[in-house]
Every structure is written in structure tokens, then in C-alpha cells.
Write a structure and sequence with these properties.
165 residues, mainly alpha, Butyryl-CoA Dehydrogenase, subunit A, domain 3, 0% strand, binds 2-acetamido-2-deoxy-beta-D-glucopyranose, enzyme inhibitor activity, Pectinesterase_inhib_dom, disulfide bond, C/VIF1, Invertase/methylesterase_inhib
Length: 165
């Protein structure tokens, strides 16, 4: 191996392990360490991200989840639901849409401006929206997993952002 190759291998290893430590340290401060590590490691941007960057990755997870839930809601609406169910689904469509068009862009803007307090509010609001959706069903909800999942990632996101306060 040439010296140059060896040097870049060493540098590379140092960079990767440095961020494995940052991810570990950061996720320890959240209510769900494993979920946090899972999502951060799944995104290649985490390899050279600072804490703000890690928070932005989690906001992106919120965005993807809200989008997935919205797609599911629209499919359910197309399947001729019962009137009560339809009303709840329409309400949920508004809730998850609010996460996509309000909470996510607000959180991203706040983090990029170095104003993390507002990003905490946005993450907390995403959890509130999902929970309100869940409450709009009088009986069994087809979106329980979506609510739980959104609550989990929002709590992790808020905890990471709080490190920046
Ligand atoms: C939501 O997902 C669809 C399909 O995967 C994609 O085309 C669309 O751009 C996504 N929207 C947002 C806001 O991410
Ligand atoms: C939504 O999920 C959260 C977290 O799992 C849970 O605490 C809450 O009770 C759920 N909301 C409803 C209305 O079921």
C-alpha cells in the first residue's frame, strides 16, 4: 500500500468513528436511543454532520413519515370508507399535511438560521398533529402505527434540537 493510500484510509476511519461517537452521544440524550441511531445511520449525510445536521436528518424522517401517512390516507379515502371513517380520514389528511407544509419547513428554517427553539416547537407540533388525527376516530383507527411512529421520531427530533439550545 502506498503511503498516500494508507493515509487516506486512516483519515477516513477517523472521520467515520468520530461521527459514530457523535451519533452515539447525541442519541443517548433522546428518549429512544435505538430508533435515533437507526435513522441517523441510514442517512449518508450523517457521516460528516454536526448536531444541527443530525437534527435536520431527523426532520427529514418526519417529512418522509408524514408523506407516507398522507399517501396511505388518500388510498383509504379512495376505498369508499364509512361516513364516520371518511370524516376522520379527511381530518387526518389535514393534520399530516400541516406537518408537511408547516412543521417541517419551519423546523428546517429555524435550524438553518440557528434559531433552534422554533424547531422544538415544530417537532412537538408534529406529534400533536398525529395524536389529534388518532383521536378523530371514534372506533378502531387504521393510523395507530402512524401516530406512534410520528410521536417517536418527533420526540427524538425535539431532544436532539434541545441539545442546541
Ligand atoms: C411524497 O412522496 C411521493 C411519492 O413517493 C413523492 O413523489 C413526493 O414528492 C413526496 N412529497 C414530499 C413533500 O416529500
Ligand atoms: C398517539 O401515540 C402516542 C405515542 O405512542 C400515544 O401516547 C397517544 O396516546 C396516541 N394517541 C392516541 C389518541 O391514541
Amino acid at each position: 500500500m502506498t503511503n498516500l493510500k494508507l493515509l487516506s484510509l486512516i483519515l477516513c476511519t477517523v472521520v467515520i468513528s468520530t461521527n459514530a461517537n457523535l451519533i452515539e452521544e447525541t442519541c443517548k440524550k433522546t428518549p429512544n436511543h435505538d430508533l435515533c441511531v437507526h435513522h441517523l445511520q441510514a442517512d449518508p449525510h450523517s457521516s460528516d454532520a454536526d448536531v444541527t445536521g443530525l437534527a435536520l436528518i431527523m426532520v427529514n424522517v418526519i417529512k418522509t413519515k408524514a408523506n407516507t401517512s398522507l399517501t396511505k390516507i388518500h388510498q383509504l379515502l379512495q376505498g369508499n370508507p364509512q361516513p364516520g371513517q371518511k370524516e376522520a380520514l379527511n381530518s387526518c389528511s389535514g393534520r399530516y399535511n400541516a406537518i408537511l407544509v408547516a412543521d417541517v419547513p419551519q423546523a428546517i428554517a429555524a435550524l438553518k438560521k440557528g434559531d433552534p427553539k422554533f424547531a422544538v416547537n415544530s417537532a412537538n407540533d408534529a406529534a400533536i398533529e398525529a395524536t389529534s388525527c388518532e383521536k378523530s376516530f371514534s372506533g378502531k383507527s387504521p393510523l395507530t402505527n402512524d401516530n406512534n411512529s410520528m410521536n417517536d421520531v418527533a420526540a427524538v427530533t425535539a431532544a436532539i434540537v434541545k441539545i442546541l439550545l
